[in-house]
User: Which sequence fits this backbone?
């Protein structure tokens, strides 16, 4: 098709966010350890973005990036949408687009994430995953109901209500999304279907035959709850045999949810939606499963297994293939706004991917910032990744928010983010005249989990020559150039002054 007669843009979009999806374990990126035939099926009709990176971590900050389009972690940790910003669903409503959320993600309905779902036209919450307080007692009628009593009382009470594979939250979520595509989508001129599927996030709990698929010799209950540890085997948190079992249980969860993802692809096939609908498959972050002897998402630098994440987009009229342009989560927000002709009314940081998908550009950004609030700042630029650690004392460190909340921990109900105190001041967020509370912290203050723990110092890796990040180049001439780019990037997003100070910039 000539440039003079460009193909019309898609009318609709489907976004499937699979939580904790490890890029290096997918067939599209050479993974062979676990079976992902349905994600591979999708990849064969999609553009696979080879340099897509997490921005704000972990779960809810990443969703803030995607749904609000503004980097979260330079200003605050896990928390709600702020009063000076709006989710993309509000902008799409102004543009006449129907928005539907189908999810089993419990954090969207807890303190710290409770207002992300509110502005969808409608939402469908499939209950019972991880920390979801769904049931007050186990199902007493099923003799085969498992009794776990391991780490999560909420999940233990819910688990007995899953009598077969189709009763698990992940399968229910993808089945509900497929049903919406078949039954409800035809009634709408334009729509966004957002499927926030919490699998393969822990607990890595699956029924047979999935549960034993990758570790058939394991004896006893499966290890479905991974520790969050930096040196899990080295420090005796896990034995090597337990580490293999946990990794196998993740693989089982990955393969099971891959199978049910195929039901959504079937619905797209049956309804003929590939011709008028953009389909985006993404994640928030990966999950360490023994890489660098780490498990979970512990306080440590964001290495490639956690931060280098998959992004696949099936775009009508665009041939499948690879894209090596640098991208990040806020760019998905910008892409959806561009696709639907909508505008955000608050400061955002994304770059639309339409120029890449339509062949009008080879790149849309030169750098990505990534990290957890209060920890290292990561810059991905050109062929390098810079890990900038804070100065001793990690100060000054401030939290900017008017929605004072963070992730609750079910088995520590008294653990809460302390409210602002006498040190707090009123400040401003970039692009907003609304006063915001700035709460400074000092050594000894109680901080969110990911901001705690020590730091390993600065690192610089040449990702092109050293993709496993084994050789630190922070003493080389390239280090100063990377620091100069980091200063420029922080200035471009109007990062708060205390970030420059605590990072020694």
Assistant:
């Amino acid at each position: 098709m000539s440039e003079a007669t460009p193909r019309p843009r898609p009318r609709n979009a489907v976004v499937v966010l699979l939580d904790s999806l490890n890029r290096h374990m997918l067939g599209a990126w050479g993974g062979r350890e676990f079976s992902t035939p349905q994600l591979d099926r999708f990849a064969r009709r999609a553009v696979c973005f080879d340099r897509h990176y997490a921005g704000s971590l972990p779960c809810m900050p990443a969703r803030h990036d995607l749904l609000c389009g503004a980097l979260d972690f330079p200003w605050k940790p896990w928390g709600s949408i702020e009063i000076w910003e709006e989710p993309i669903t509000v902008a799409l409503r102004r543009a006449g687009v129907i928005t539907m959320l189908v999810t089993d993600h419990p954090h969207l309905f807890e303190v710290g994430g409770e207002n992300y779902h509110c502005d969808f036209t409608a939402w469908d919450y499939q209950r019972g995953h991880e920390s979801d307080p769904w049931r007050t007692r186990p199902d007493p009628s099923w003799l085969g109901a498992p009794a776990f009593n391991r780490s999560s009382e909420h999940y233990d009470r819910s688990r007995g209500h899953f009598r077969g594979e189709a009763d698990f939250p992940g399968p229910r979520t993808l089945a509900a999304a497929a049903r919406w595509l078949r039954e409800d989508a035809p009634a709408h001129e334009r729509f966004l279907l957002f499927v926030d599927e919490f699998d393969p996030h822990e607990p890595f709990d699956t029924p047979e035959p999935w549960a034993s698929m990758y570790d058939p010799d394991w004896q006893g209950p499966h290890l479905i709850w991974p520790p969050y540890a930096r040196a899990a085997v080295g420090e005796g948190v896990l034995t090597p045999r337990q580490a293999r079992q946990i990794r196998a249980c993740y693989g089982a969860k990955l393969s099971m949810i891959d199978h049910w993802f195929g039901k959504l692809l079937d619905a797209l096939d049956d309804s003929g939606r590939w011709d008028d609908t953009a389909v985006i498959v993404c994640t928030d972050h990966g999950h360490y499963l023994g890489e660098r002897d780490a498990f979970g998402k512990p306080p440590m630098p964001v290495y490639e297994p956690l931060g280098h994440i998959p992004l696949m987009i099936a775009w009508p009229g665009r041939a499948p293939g690879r894209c090596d342009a640098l991208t990040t989560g806020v760019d998905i927000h910008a892409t959806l706004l561009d696709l639907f002709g909508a505008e955000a009314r608050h400061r955002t940081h994304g770059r639309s991917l339409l120029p890449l998908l339509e062949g009008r550009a080879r790149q849309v950004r030169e750098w990505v910032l990534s990290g957890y609030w209060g920890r290292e700042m990561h810059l991905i630029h050109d062929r390098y990744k810079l890990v900038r650690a804070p100065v001793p004392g990690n100060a000054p460190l401030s939290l900017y928010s008017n929605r004072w909340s963070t992730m609750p921990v079910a088995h520590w109900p008294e653990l809460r983010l302390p409210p602002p105190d006498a040190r707090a001041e009123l400040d401003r967020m970039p692009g907003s005249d609304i006063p915001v509370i700035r709460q400074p912290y000092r050594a000894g203050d109680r901080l969110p989990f990911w901001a705690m723990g020590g730091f390993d110092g600065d690192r610089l890796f040449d990702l092109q020559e050293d993709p496993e990040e084994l050789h630190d180049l922070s003493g080389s001439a390239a280090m100063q150039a990377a620091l100069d780019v980091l200063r420029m990037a922080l200035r471009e997003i109007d990062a708060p002054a205390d970030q420059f100070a605590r990072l020694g910039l």
